[in-house]
Amino acid sequence: MDLDEYQRGALRTAAPRDKKNELLHLVLGLVGESGEVAEKFKKWVRDLDSDESRIDRAHIAKELGDVLWYVAVLADYLDLSLDDIATANLAKLASRQDRGVLGGSGDNR
């Protein structure tokens, strides 16, 4: 499955764009689901002594799937293709690596 195919599939379960506050709903949903990923790792640190063999990969995969759904639907809301986003992101990172600025901070490195 390619990313645009996933995006089209995700849209089958999305609310209509014209639903009141849908953009805000999508942004907050993305933040919330990302927070759930972080929460799983917080508990892994707190309760499991950061033992990588004890990461609950199945639960993390479910939460990452929720993050991916929100990214896909939010991108569509903004008329952006996931394939295009992914391609541009890899090109940006490769350029940073080639120029020796992969580490550090700032959007325009």
Automatic annotation (TrEMBL):
Keyword Ion transport appears in the UniProt entry = no
Positions of the NTP pyrophosphohydrolase MazG-like domain: 25-98
Question: Is the keyword Hydrolase in the record?
Answer: yes
Q: InterPro entries, per this entry?
A: dCTP_Pyrophosphatase, MazG-like_dom, MazG-related_GP37
Annotated GO molecular function terms are: hydrolase activity
Q: Which SUPFAM superfamilies match?
A: all-alpha NTP pyrophosphatases
Q: Which UniProt keywords apply?
A: Hydrolase
Source species, domain of life: Bacteria
For this entry, the protein name equals NTP pyrophosphatase (Non-canonical NTP hydrolase)
